[in-house]
Amino acid sequence: xxxxxxxxxxxxxxxDTVQNNRHYRDRHQLFYVEGIRGFVQAVDTGFTIxxxxxxxxxxxxxxxxxxVRQQRRAGVATVNLSPEAFRRIAxxxxxSGVAALIQQQWHDLSATDANQSLCWTLLxxxxxxxxxxxxxxxxxxxxxxxxxxxxxxxxxxAPSVLRSAMGASFHQAFVRTDWASLRTxxxxxxxxxxxxxxxxxxxxHALPQLATAPLLVxxxxxxxxxxxxxxxxxxxxxxxxxxGADSLNLGVAxxxxxxxxxxxxxxx
Length: 268
Hints:
The chain is α/β, with parallel strands linked by helices. It is built from ten helices and eleven strands. The longest helix has 17 residues, at about 250-265.
């Protein structure tokens, strides 16, 4: 058996660390994307690609192969892996033959103009990565600007979130901030702040007309809105449900709110 190439082993170890170690991922501001759709969208939306990992024998898609060549000529580091080595980092059942380590993109809250968007979504905690991915997909679908994340709990660049977002993450802006900065930002811009709550006094279909871009506040799946979130809200809105019905999944509930906002502000 041939000895393992130490350079390839180092690349595989780093890739595994980016996938599975959030502290490392955050410290180096990297994330991992696998598959043709994610790779193509990363290139098309102008994200900075730090390294491309591909397998010449597995990657048969002509568009992706062309992009790999173009990125290599542009100076992006590329590593051609054997099928066996690529499958060591692959998270999809059917290995596509292309993946990449990409620079995270974060936007500064103070430079964010709320009125130049349909809406923003505020989160401070999400229990399920799948719910976060669904919210990202829905926000991108309605034309929402992105997500304001308070604190360090929510990780939009976790591999499980990116997989469930299905490429929509490349079309959303992410802002990380603290409560004091957020309160100042809201006060200076006088944005409508809508909180989703089962105890809200206003049903969703009676949401007051939104003349300007709102901030939609969504709570954690089990606990709902935190006290700090509730204190921000000018209006608490509920989704009408039949008596005895349990609360809706966060991804579903958030989707209903986002589409109501789109209906009001962008038309059918």
